[in-house]
Amino acid sequence: MDDLYREIIIERYKEPLYRGVLEPHDISFEDENPLCGDHIRIDLRVDENSRVVEAAFSGHGCAISQASADLLLESIIGKTLDEVKQLSKQDVLELLGIELGPVRLKCALLPLKVIKAGVYGLGEASDSLVEE
Amino acid sequence: MTTTLTERLDVMRIREDFPVLKREVAPGVPLVYLDSTATSQKPLAVIRAMNDYYERSNANIHRGVHTLAEEATAQYEAAREKIAEFIGVRKSREVVFVRNTTEAINLVAFSWGRKFLQRGDRVLLTEMEHHSNLVPWQILAQEKEILLDFIPVTTDGLLDLEEFERLLNLKPKLVAVTQMSNVLGTINPVKKLTQRAHQVGAVVLVDGAQSVPHLPVNVQDLEIDFLAFSAHKMLGPTGIGVLFGREELLEAMPPFLGGGDMIKKVHLRSFSPNELPHKFEAGTPAIAEAIGFGAAIDYLKQVGMERVAAHEHDIISYALEALSEIEGLTLYGPSADQKGAVVSFTMRGVHPHDVSQILDSQGIAVRAGHHCAMPLHEKFGLPATTRASFYLYNTRQEVDQLVQGLAKVKKIFG
User: Fold this and answer.
1) ipTM
2) Which residue among A37, A63, A64 sits closest to B369, beta carbon to beta carbon?
3) Is B354 in CB contact (< 8 Å) with chain A?
4) Is the per-residue pLDDT at B139 higher than 90?
5) Is A107 helix (H, G, I), strand (E, B) or coil?
6) Is the backbone peptide bond immediately before A102 cis, with ω within 30 degrees of 0?
7) Residues of chain B with C-beta less than 8 angstroms from the C-beta of A68
């Protein structure tokens, strides 16, 4: 269980590389996990080829959700929006390098849910965006 | 220290009665259960009572004339009698079985509220209510255009009683208040509140979800009109709770759910409702659970609620002292003399989820989140807290384990 707090997770939680807001931005979306109150906003800038060139997240949450956001944003820089749409739950778990129970899985997947809702231009984020 | 049975409860002997307390959550990691405010553990006597019912007497209640139906009915109604006596109710017809505290409050909002509240009427709540004592009134407010007021919570986690007096001048029709906060542990001065509310003609509903399991509660003495509580927080099973209501209030209320058992007569286009309490118990109820609830009451009565409360006071006093010495930890709520055995806290730089997760890796079960009291967390500017709560089976040693566990959290987050 202690593996959950791998060095990379604590590191990214304490000193995230992608924390902040982008103004102006091309895509922005925010949502929260009603169970625990974690709140995440994600801003993206994309180039003329629909490639993500800049990304930032803001909000508050646990180490898992914050590290997940930071690692996820790092991984989508240079990807096209179509590629971002293909990201799955498994991709997030691989980035984090841990296994999670059903409760903490929601923390880990919140950033992906927010990114996808933004990229798809949805009015509201849904769990179905991150289910297999 | 020598103590007599009448003074202290024997916590080690009590622990023997709870099978789950013997388990390990991982090899070599024993369970330290500090989440009784969410749900309590169950003694063998409760588990057995429910098993016995299923193995020997399982039948639907009321109207059956065979032996099993008679036994089941007798046991179900005996549970009602035990509960009535436990909270100082003279007539067991004032004790209605429901699913839980939430359903009890919804019943009052749906039945009493819809009939007796008119547009512009006021309902007085508090800022420390659980969602179960907020949302039913919000739903009613939307439908009936009634107005909701809130007694504020002070920074110490107490009700602002001066503001309560001012809000009473608005002549609320109903005052609905928790007796014990599930986040701060604050024990509210219910008798003072009911007396003042009655002086302005208000009916008083008390959310007893946290108080009835942990304190002696007597509805006559406290002059309570409606009391709602759940079995599962007081050693009983999930799926059963109680609404106590004064007879004249319940008599005047229309039925909540319609169906079997709640009727006296049914014709194709009309019905006449059954007598109390059956008027509010439509359909086959949770029979085994009611019987299990009765066994839980027997258990608590045998230990004695005064002793349960005294034991918990000792544990929470000890816990508050130990936790207040941890640097970077902020505790919320009043001092031990004004609260039950619940403590919510935050640790600087560490999210409550992470605190609970690392405690779990050491076998310590606590809860993280807003504990179904989002407005209260908003008031304190917190997205979430970690909450440890104690019951008659918890020990000082478990408090020490919590303190050690928190040291480990600090180490990991360095």
Assistant:
1) 0.78
2) A37
3) yes
4) yes
5) helix
6) no
7) none
